[in-house]
Design a protein that fits this description.
Length: 329
């Protein structure tokens, strides 16, 4: 049966399929080659490949028997550490399948456990260390107690670089018969913030209703401001029609629910692609930064964004050629 979610369908099954993380892969390959390893701690932001790498390691260690030798648990499960203890005890007391010298327990969200629960987990790791290895997955290593950290080899997972995310998204889009445009990749990366799982999910949502995925389709699916709206508003303001630009702004704010900070970020994203002189771009970028700061300090959104439009109108009058200059052309 086909996978429901693309991030599962296209999840790497081997080290060679994993994008980036070369240093991590090299160290884990060493463990596989030696046939032994310590407890491991994978930490980093969501969607950076921690779960994927843990499952890939299981496949590399156990081959066809990886499911029988691997137990996945959520360490912050509301049922508590006692349930985890019982499940680990039941799992660990049976011998590994195949030639593996130990079994593998993958604990997700280990950093969401209380300090007392982590102390109990540390004891579990000690009791079953002879024939079980633990891989702890966490977003924040600072939330893991020192006794656990000292018992683990630590691996940091970083957000996916834009070029590698783009490469992966294009591969998925091609496999699914979807046309993925460059402007869509830009906004997907901006919205996902390097979270590969979130990026793939967003692509799947957009592709469900669009065979051509562009920035406007992504913005609509993500319930954020469309690039075409930004361009329209910018052209109105820079062209001198500040009143009409303000009407468009109010429509975006009060009818479509666009927040001021989201508007500024979307504007900055589009500014990079606008066909303007570098000096003009720099001036607008400085203006956006100034307004962004005011918004974070609690200033009124409509007043600040109206100010932005008026400044763009003044900038447009300054850079537009006068009637006399136009006649000379």
């Amino acid at each position: 049966m086909a996978e429901l979610f693309w991030f599962e369908k296209y999840r790497p099954r081997s080290f060679d399929e994993v994008v980036d993380l070369e240093e991590v892969k090299a160290r884990l390959r060493g463990f596989v080659k030696s046939g032994d390893m310590p407890h491991l701690l994978f930490y980093g932001p969501p969607g950076t490949g921690k779960t994927t790498m843990a499952l890939v390691l299981a496949r590399e260690l156990y081959g066809e028997y990886w499911r029988e030798n691997t137990l996945e648990l959520n360490a912050s499960d509301e049922r508590g550490i006692n349930v985890i203890r019982e499940r680990v005890k039941e799992f660990a007391r049976t011998a590994p399948v195949g030639k593996a010298p130990f079994k593998l327990v993958i604990l997700d969200e280990a950093d969401n456990m209380t300090s007392d629960a982590q102390q109990a987990l540390r004891r579990i790791m000690e009791i079953y260390a002879q024939n079980t290895r633990f891989i702890l997955l966490a977003n924040y290593v600072s939330r893991i107690i020192d006794p656990i950290i000292s018992r683990c080899a630590i691996f940091r997972f970083s957000p996916m670089p834009k070029n590698l995310m783009a490469e992966r998204l294009r591969l998925i889009a091609k496999s699914e018969g979807v046309e993925l445009r460059d402007d869509a990749i830009d906004i997907i990366y901006e919205l996902s913030e390097g979270d590969m799982r979130k990026a793939i999910n967003l692509l799947q949502v957009v592709a469900a209703t669009n065979k051509v995925v562009d920035s406007n389709a992504v913005a609509a699916a993500a319930a954020t401001i469309k690039p075409s709206d930004i361009i329209e508003l910018f052209n109105l303001a820079i062209g001198g029609d500040v009143s009409k630009a303000r009407e468009k702004l109010r429509e975006l704010m009060y009818l479509k629910g666009v927040a001021g900070v989201d508007f500024i970020r979307a504007f900055q994203r589009e500014l990079i692609r606008m066909a303007l002189d570098d000096d003009v771009k720099a001036e607008i970028a400085e203006l956006l930064a100034d307004i962004d700061y005011r918004l974070t300090q609690g200033a009124d959104e409509e007043i600040q964004l109206t100010y932005l439009l008026s400044k763009l109108g003044a900038l447009g009058r300054r850079i537009r050629p006068s009637p006399a200059q136009q006649k000379k052309r």
